[in-house]
Amino acid sequence: MKRVSVGKLYEFACKALMHYGMNAGDAEVTARTLVTTDTFGVLSHGTKNLCQYIQKIQAGGIDPKAKPAILREGPAWAILDGKRAMGMVSACRGMALAVEKARKTGIAYVGVRNSCHFGAAGYYANLAAAQGMIGIAMSNADPNMAIPGSRDVAIGNNPFSFAVPVRSGESIFLDIALSNVAALKVVMAKERGEQVPLGWLIDDQGVPTTDPSGFPHDSHLLPMAAHKGYGLAVMVESLAGLLTGAGMLGEVSSWNLNLASPNNAGHAFIAIDCAQMMPPERFGDRVEQMARELHDAPKGQGTEKIFLPGEMEWAKRRKALEEDAIELTQAMADSLIKLSGMCGIPLE
Ligand SMILES: NC(=O)c1ccc[n+]([C@@H]2O[C@H](COP(=O)([O-])OP(=O)(O)OC[C@H]3O[C@@H](n4cnc5c(N)ncnc54)[C@H](O)[C@@H]3O)[C@@H](O)[C@H]2O)c1
Predict the structure, then answer these.
(1) Facing residues of 47 across strands?
(2) Alpha-carbon distance values, 84 to 67, 70, 87, 192, 301 (Å)
């Protein structure tokens, strides 16, 4: 299988989730999050992981029927208890609540505890941008990254995203993990028997290495931009883990290696209602001016086009929707076929 229809993939994901006990509304929220992520070309964090989320439901680490609930709140903030629900369900609820509150107060923060891996942070930041707000979304993760001076993992590569609304509907958005590279890229180099660039890994003595052969046991990811990525990872940990009462650092367990345990990740969502701070027309004009000026930066040798954050993803999404097709990676095809076999629901 090389390609799959966007619509059919969405239907398949909904049916599979309902087969394992989720109600139709939550299944749609989860499927929409994962399939939209696929259309953006972030195939590592979309429906490829659905099979493992469902295995986590089967093992008891996710409660497909849980209803996240507000634990505490003020006019411009809330803490949600995810109650071990699917991460996408808690996270969408978290950003929706931040947007609802920001509509009244101009800006709002919602923290989520007792959640699970939420996939790609960008989807949630874009929920706010679709409502004309600047959205910020982040999550902590189980420690998979060393920090300057350490010789073992100490913190997650905590994903961070922001999205700024643009009149065209295609936001400016950055969606990144705070490690220098995704673990998947190291694994791919390891499988090909290749060395990796310096700055990606340290060995188990804390010495920089280009040898990925022992990854992840004998070598560890490094933060992006050294101390700067480390510092940002601590900021995400503080807003998503510490302040929410979620698991913090080593209290977050691997969502896919410990299927029976709750992941206990935390998330943070911030929505800023631009229209309250500046007339929408003027905001729209200024965003376009910023985009124009960035696009028009003098190009370096060999560069044909300068991109805004998120621009490549929007182009991929447009193509996927126009062709009603997502090109599958082998890992994604294998995982979807496995899930189809498990639940007896055909993919096409
Ligand atoms: N849930 C979790 O625990 C978890 C953990 C880690 C990562 N993630 C997700 O993994 C995904 C991949 O993260 P990553 O760090 O590998 O991303 P990446 O390094 O591929 O960077 C992607 C971002 O950089 C922007 N970008 C790339 N090249 C650009 C250019 N030339 N000009 C302008 N912008 C450019 C893209 O538009 C996009 O916003 C993200 O969706 C992230 O949320 C999730």
Answers:
(1) none
(2) 9, 14, 8, 38, 50
Closest C-alpha to 14, from 67, 43, 54 = 54
**184 pLDDT tier (thresholds 50, 70, 90):** confident
Q: How many domains does the chain have?
A: 1
Domain-embedded: residue 216: yes
In the block, tokens 């990811």 appear at: 221
- Nearest Cα neighbor of 104 from 273, 289, 328, 282 is 273
Q: What percent of the chain has pLDDT over 90?
A: 95
In degrees, to the nearest 5, what angle opens at C-alpha 78 toward C-alphas 42 and 54? 40
Instruction: For ligand 1, atom 37, name the residue with the nearest CA.
Output: 310
In ligand 1, the atom with minimum distance to the C-alpha of 117 is 1
CATH of the domain at 210: 3.30.60.50
Q: Which of 346, 331, 325 shows the shortest CA–CA distance to 3?
A: 325
Express each pLDDT in 195-236 by its tens digit: 999 999 999 999 999 999 999 999 999 999 999 999 999 999
| Domain-located, residue 227 | no
Q: Is there a domain that residue 191 lies in?
A: yes
- pLDDT per position as a tens digit, 62-115: 999 999 999 999 999 999 999 999 999 999 999 999 999 999 999 999 999 999
Which among 53, 153, 173, 175 is the best mutation to test ligand 1's pocket, defined by most ligand atoms within 8 Å of the CB? 175
| Alpha-carbon span 177 to 187, nearest angstrom | 16
Rounded to two decimals, the pTM is 0.97
> Within 10 A of 201 (CB to CB), how many other CB atoms are there?
26
Residue 204 belongs to what domain range? 180-222
Q: What is the mean pLDDT of residues 39-54?
A: 96
Quick check: is 202 in a domain? yes
Q: Which residue's CA lies nearest to atom 21 of ligand 1? A: 176
